[in-house]
Structures are given as C-alpha cells and as structure tokens.
C-alpha cells in the first residue's frame, strides 16, 4: 500500500495555489474550479487543495531547513517554529541511522501549518 493523495484545506483557492507554488517550487498539475480543486505532484503523491477540506499537517522534506525557512520568511510566510533537532536516528527505523532530524514550521496562506524536515548527518 502507498499514499496516493493528501487533501489540504483552502478557503481561498487562488491564494492557496500561489502559496503552495512558492512552498513547493512548482506550479500545479491541474485545476478544476468548479468544484474548487487544485493538484500538485509531490514525487508521485497528489497534494489536493480543496475548498472545505479539513486542515492537514504536512511535513515536507528539504535539503537545507535553515535556507528553506529563510527563503519562505523572505517571501512573507509566517514562521511558527525555528529550525531545531527533534530526534537523533541511531538506527534506520524512522530515518537514516547517524542523522539528526531537523524541523521548522511555517504557516500557509490559509492558516495551515507546514513543517520542513531535513535529515542531517551528524
């Protein structure tokens, strides 16, 4: 079994589309309005922005959490959490052994939290 799609709440579809294009560094794959759906491709998993969907907490893998956070801060996204280590992987259960998992969080245009995750070798 594999994850196919995540739905994320978007009260203002156009505003959310601009925000996620900035967050993901990619334009949407498809827009259907009506009924109010925008699709992005996350490495084979669809991210669907949908009017009326419940909020989801998204965790996005990034190469450099500090640099990505500064890019998003400069673009005006509110920062909710500065980069910090949340876990050190001593085995491969949840991430590569010998790495520290760094996270930071921003708020999207719709008030949803998006967490940036970096696996950094120690």
What does this 3D model show about the protein?
The chain has 122 residues and is an alpha/beta fold. The chain folds into 2 domains: 1-54, Signal recognition particle alu RNA binding heterodimer, srp9/1; 57-122, Roll (2,3-Dihydroxybiphenyl 1,2-Dioxygenase, domain 1), CATH 3.10.180.10. The protein has helices at 13-24, 65-74, and strands at 5-9, 30-32, 37-42, 45-50, 58-61, 79-89, 99-107, 113-121. The longest helix is centred in the N-terminal third of the chain and has 12 residues, at 13-24.
How would you name the CATH homologous superfamily of the largest domain? 2,3-Dihydroxybiphenyl 1,2-Dioxygenase, domain 1
- Calculate the terminal CA-CA distance, rounded to whole Å: 32 Å
Oligomer type? single chain
Q: Looking across the biggest beta sheet, what order are the strands in?
A: 1-4-3-2
Average predicted confidence as pLDDT: 97
> Are there runs of 5+ residues with pLDDT below 50, and where?
none
List the helices and strands and how they pair.
Elements: E1 5-9, H1 13-24, E2 30-32, E3 37-42, E4 45-50, E5 58-61, H2 65-74, E6 79-89, E7 99-107, E8 113-121
Parallel strand pairs: 1-4, 5-8
Antiparallel strand pairs: 2-3, 3-4, 6-7, 7-8
